[in-house]
């Protein structure tokens, strides 16, 4: 391994590998893969060049000395961090990462360049991790206990041992920082020969202007996750990302999944609900989709609308597409979107094509609840 460490001291472009035997299983044969992963993406394209040297040559011994391997410099840790910082500074995002707790370094950092997750974390390259997101409004975390319940449930379903007890997760989620709005907890298990489970908590300030105008949705052609995976909030969100992209490509805000039996399921990061012609609030069952904390709270708050006579009742059951598209109102519900009216689903205009009174009343109820709800849903963040 002496040759490995000494070659790593030099930029890769200065390193020459002579007579590298690709079928060799001696320790030196480890040289290429280790350097490949060390150099990451920048090197990957060039590794194809190396492989073509192998292909074009009838020899098993491929001389790569004459091949320009890479101009990518080899950086020490502080140089890499500095480059991370400049790359972040050059990227203007509406989301600011204000603070991060990591159980790996056992502390909180406010330096966004240090808000990183180790490459060998099983969450990063195998998707073995769960997460949750809760909103912070006026210094109060909304529905913290409900989000803690869900992340612990998700971790159990994903066979992830909690890296610490519930109280420690709660404490770390209370990270003290002014002005934050969103908090995200990611927990990860690395099985057997990997790292032990880790906990990360990130505080994100979303500066996008709030927009509650009604939106269009489309039916997702990306298949919904099977119920076993849809009911847990794992980091495997590729189907969700693709379905959101499909919506945007078709001028929509979100794509709606149908379940395996063709009933209305949910959106990529929100639940859906309807107001029927009979003035009932209707929501799909949570048995094959994510049990949304906001949607569950809406079901409780909507009881007030029943008392006021604004709706006749509340039902949670299977919803057909025909019923959904023929509803008086349709809405998206979630921690990010809160309650947002849907004005059009595919080619079908919903109701009279305007934000409905029940959706608007539910939005007001949720916002009031976030600002002045009971202590069971509001926990003060100790600034
Ligand atoms: C797939 C999915 N469904 C529903 C929701 C809504 O859940 P919540 O109201 O807890 O944010 C989310 C939230 O991210 C989600 O990812």
UniProtKB/TrEMBL annotation:
CDD domains: PLPDE_IV. It comes from Camellia sinensis (Tea plant). PANTHER family: AMINO-ACID AMINOTRANSFERASE, D-AMINO-ACID TRANSAMINASE, CHLOROPLASTIC. GO terms for biological process: amino acid biosynthetic process; carboxylic acid biosynthetic process. This is Uncharacterized protein. The keyword Transport does not apply. It holds the Pfam family Aminotran_4. Keywords: Pyridoxal phosphate. Belongs to the class-IV pyridoxal-phosphate-dependent aminotransferase family. Its cofactor is pyridoxal 5'-phosphate. The lineage of its organism: Eukaryota, Viridiplantae, Streptophyta, Embryophyta, Tracheophyta.
């Amino acid at each position: 391994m002496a040759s490995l460490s000494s070659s790593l001291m030099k930029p890769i472009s200065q390193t020459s590998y002579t007579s590298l035997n690709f079928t060799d299983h001696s320790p030196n044969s480890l040289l290429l893969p280790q350097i490949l992963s060390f150099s990451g993406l920048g090197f990957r394209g060039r590794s194809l060049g190396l492989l073509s040297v192998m292909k074009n040559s009838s020899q098993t011994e491929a001389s790569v000395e004459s091949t320009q391997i890479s101009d990518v410099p080899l950086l020490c840790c502080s140089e890499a961090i500095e480059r991370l910082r400049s790359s972040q500074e050059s990227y203007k995002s509406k989301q600011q990462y204000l603070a991060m707790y990591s159980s790996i370094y056992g502390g909180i950092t406010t330096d966004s360049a240090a808000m990183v997750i180790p490459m060998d974390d099983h969450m990063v390259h195998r998707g073995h991790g769960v997460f949750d997101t809760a909103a912070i409004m006026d210094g109060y975390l909304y529905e913290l206990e409900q989000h803690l319940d869900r992340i612990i449930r998700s971790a159990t379903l994903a066979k992830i041992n909690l890296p610490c007890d519930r109280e420690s997760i709660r404490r770390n989620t209370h990270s003290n920082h002014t002005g934050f709005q969103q908090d995200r907890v990611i927990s990860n298990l690395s099985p057997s020969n990997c790292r032990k489970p880790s906990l990360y908590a990130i505080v994100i300030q979303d500066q996008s202007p709030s927009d509650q105008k009604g939106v269009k949705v489309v039916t997702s052609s990306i298949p919904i996750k099977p119920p076993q995976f849809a009911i847990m909030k794992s980091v495997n969100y590729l189907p969700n990302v693709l379905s959101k992209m499909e919506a945007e490509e078709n001028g929509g805000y979100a794509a709606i999944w149908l379940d395996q039996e063709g009933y209305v399921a949910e959106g990529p990061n929100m639940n859906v609900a309807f107001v029927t012609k009979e003035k009932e609030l209707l929501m799909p069952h949570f048995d094959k989709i994510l049990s949304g904390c906001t949607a569950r709270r809406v079901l409780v708050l909507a009881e007030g609308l029943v008392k006021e006579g604004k709706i006749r009742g509340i039902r949670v059951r299977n919803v057909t597409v025909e019923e959904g598209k023929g509803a008086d109102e349709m809405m998206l519900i979630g921690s990010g979107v809160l309650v947002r009216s849907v004005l059009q689903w595919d080619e079908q205009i919903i109701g009279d094509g305007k934000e409905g009174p029940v959706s608007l009343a539910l939005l007001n109820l949720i916002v009031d609840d976030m600002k002045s709800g009971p202590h069971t849903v509001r926990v003060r963040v100790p600034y």
